[in-house]
Design a protein that fits this description.
alpha/beta; Alpha/beta knot; Trp Operon Repressor, Chain A; 2 domains; two-stranded antiparallel sheet; 9 helices; about 15% strand; binds adenine
Length: about 240
């Protein structure tokens, strides 16, 4: 997977990416990150890339041409027409299913806006997906791009160690994860559930599954509708309803 990020703050994206697991994966050659500074494509002698909005109003708008030239410089290298994700609170809300969909691509281009937005015409010309990371407004698209790259990276072959394997995490099966405990057995008066100390593997597995079901039902009942439940799961949930 090759990530390409069109941004006015390349250092922010590189710093965020290099730290931790995504950086380790890049060093191993499992993925790559290229940042493209939109300012390098300014068509103005003062290196400006923004201008006043037509029709008036507050703030500045990123101009179409520098964004387009930055995109063109990437598209030349990737060949074909890569998906171009524009980070915006107006987009489709990112979720695990979309992460899985994006992880199947070879190249992903992220377009990060700032100020009051980007000239609509260049968005129409190059953007394939407008993506939001949630219903709140950030100052720019860099953090959303990092969030999406992180979620996609951990799904790629070899990025996580076996013991960190992505397939057992929350949302894998539309169920939240069960609670985890480590040493000591008693911490400030709080003890570890005895079943986890029993060494009885089947009982541990059943307890964990039940905890996942309880948590999902309490915290995210909307997910349960899409979860793949066994007959035993359904019976357990029905029993909870009776309580
Ligand atoms: N840019 C500003 N806010 C955003 C959000 N919530 N998601 C994606 N891009 C954004």
């Amino acid at each position: 997977m090759n990530f390409h990020v069109l941004t006015l703050f390349p250092d922010m994206v590189r710093d965020g990416f290099q730290t931790s697991i995504t950086g380790r994966a890049a060093e191993k050659g499992l993925l790559s990150l290229e940042t493209i500074n939109i300012r390098d494509f300014s068509v103005n002698k003062h290196n400006r890339v923004d201008d006043y909005p037509y029709g008036g109003g507050a703030g500045m708008v990123m101009q179409a041409e520098p964004v387009y030239l930055a995109y063109e410089s990437v598209a030349k290298r990737t060949g074909g027409t890569p998906r171009v994700l524009y980070m915006s609170p107006q987009g489709r809300v990112f979720d695990q299913r979309m992460a899985e969909e994006l992880a199947r691509e070879d190249e992903l281009v992220f377009l990060c806006g700032h100020y009051e937005g980007i000239d609509e015409r260049v968005l129409q010309e190059i953007v394939t997906d407008e993506v939001s990371i949630g219903d709140y407004v950030l100052t720019g698209g860099e953090l959303p791009a990092l969030v999406i790259m992180d979620a996609v990276s951990r799904l790629l072959e070899g990025v996580l160690h076996n013991e960190e394997s992505a397939q057992f995490d929350s949302f894998h099966d539309n169920l939240l994860e069960y609670p985890q405990y480590s040493r000591p057995e008693e911490w400030r008066g709080r003890t570890v559930p005895p079943v986890l100390l029993s060494g009885h593997h089947a009982n541990v597995e059943r307890w964990r599954r039940e905890q996942s079901l309880i948590r999902t039902r309490e915290r995210r009942p909307d997910l349960l509708e899409h979860a793949q439940l066994t007959e035993e799961d359904k019976k357990f949930l029905a029993k909870l309803e009776e309580l």
